[in-house]
Design a protein that fits this description.
The protein is α/β, with parallel strands linked by helices. Helices cover about 45% and strands about 10% of the residues. The chain folds into 2 domains: about 5-15 and about 95-215, Rossmann fold; about 20-90. The chain has 10 helices and 6 strands; from the N terminus they run βαααααβαβααβαββα. Strands 3-2-1-4-5-6 form a 6-stranded parallel beta sheet. The longest helix is centred in the first third of the chain and has 18 residues, at about 35-55. It is globular and about 55 Å long. The protein starts with a strand and ends with a helix.
Length: about 220
Amino acid sequence: MVRAILLDVFGTLVQDDGAGAAAIAADVAARAGVVPAEVVRDWEARLWAMADTAHGDGFRTLADLNAASLAETADFFGVRVDARELCRAAVDPAPPLFPDAAPFLASLDVPVCLVSDADSEHLGAILARHGVAVEQVVTSEDARAYKPRPEPFRMALRRLGLSPADVVHIGDSPVSDLAGAAALGIPAIFVNRDGRDLPPGLKPLRTVSSLSFLSS
């Protein structure tokens, strides 16, 4: 029996179209004379490589990682930018909820803990703006680690006072959500809004195309 739900935020509850990052990548690409996709691939690879080592005493906020990885990418392509200012200006302070998010949350009769790779102040402002209130929230900044590392999931379990068998995790990232939860024995539901194929070996409890399939 599921006694609580762990729930990802960006890409699951909150729309994350990446428009700000895409605009930055396009600007860097234009100055470097390359296609934007090349900049995006390099930036993302550097960002998540940094996130992999940013835990415990070496933790860095997502804002810091975004700016640092962009600075390295721009330098790689021979472009000079004010990476911190570009990233700060590109952050959407009020990204919209998916249309199915509020009905899904309203349908639940068990506690919810949000588990998000996000800076606490930024996520708190988004939740407040949309009136999203849940029992617990764990950010990467709280746990001093990023999914799929176990720290965010373990902190969520501790705050709920439950074991992996008592919960289900719901998220849209095969690596961060599915693999991260599976490593701790937490069953996971994959919210596959864009029809992506799962990497071999990942076996979610269920795959749905929207949260509405879970609230009906």
